[in-house]
Structures are given as C-alpha cells and as structure tokens.
Amino acid sequence: MKATEIQLSRKITTQLLHEAVLSPDQEVCGLVGSKDGVAHSCYPIKNIADQPETRFQLDEKQQISAMASMRDNNESFFAIYHSHPSSPAVPSATDIKLANYPDAIHLIISLNTKGVLEIRGFTIIDQSVEEILLTMSPN
C-alpha cells in the first residue's frame, strides 16, 4: 500500500532544513534511512550535477556508502531529498523524468520563500506525481 502520510522527526526535519540553508545557491541532496517505517537518519550526499544550482545528481560512491551504512544500522531506504534554492518545493520536470526509485519518497526543500522554509513530500511513479502529507512526530 502506498503511503499518503508520513511522519518526520523534528531532528530529521531540522537536519534537512539546516543543510539547505547552508547551501543557498546550490541544490543539496541525500538519502534518508528509516527504522520501522519512521525516518531515522539523514545521509547527505555530494551533488555532482553539471548545474547544481538547478538540479541534483547524487555522487555514486557516496550513495553506495550511504546504502551500506543504512544496512549496517538496520535501516531501510526511505527517501531521497534535495533542495530547490529558487523554486517551489514541487518536483521539477527534470525531477520527474529522472525519478528512478518508485518505492522512495521524494522530499523537496524550498528556499524560495520569504522567511519560512518549506519541505514537502511526493511519490513519483512512472512520471506520475502524488503529494504525501508530512507531519512532525513528537520525537
């Protein structure tokens, strides 16, 4: 069954937003691991895209290392995240076209807001996009 709502901990949410703020001119990216279906750990990965200000590409070696760390920590691959420095927190045409993990949630952080950071979640399956409701867990 496909998720329609997920909970992110304050810790994970803060990590994702903080990472995006530290790189306001380039998209940041990485993976999120989960335990028991709940986001548990954030794995920042270098963006190696040719135009990192408008797209992201995960560094393959760091992605493999992050997946190995998840396995070693008894975590499951939960989400791919990236930021949009100057556009809304919705998947771009490129994000949709290049989405290759149908079981992953796509978390997008937008810095294109006035004073408020935005993070939204989506599933992208066969270029079909559906938003997932994000709620903050108490932990």
SSE topology sketch:
Blueprint: E1 5-8, H1 10-22, E2 29-35, E3 38-45, H2 60-72, E4 76-84, H3 93-97, E5 105-110, E6 118-125, E7 128-136
Parallel strand pairs: 1-7, 4-5
Antiparallel strand pairs: 2-3, 2-4, 5-6, 6-7
Task: Describe the structure using short key phrases.
3 helices; Cytidine Deaminase, domain 2; 7-stranded mixed sheet; 139 residues; alpha/beta
* CATH class term: Alpha Beta
Q: What's the β-strand tally?
A: 7
Mean pLDDT rating: 91
CATH topology: Cytidine Deaminase, domain 2
The helix content, as a percent range, equals: 10-25%
Round the Cα radius of gyration to an integer and report it. Answer: 14 Å
Query: What is the strand content?
Result: 35-45%
Oligomerization category of the chains in this entry? single chain
Structural class of the helix and strand makeup?
alpha/beta
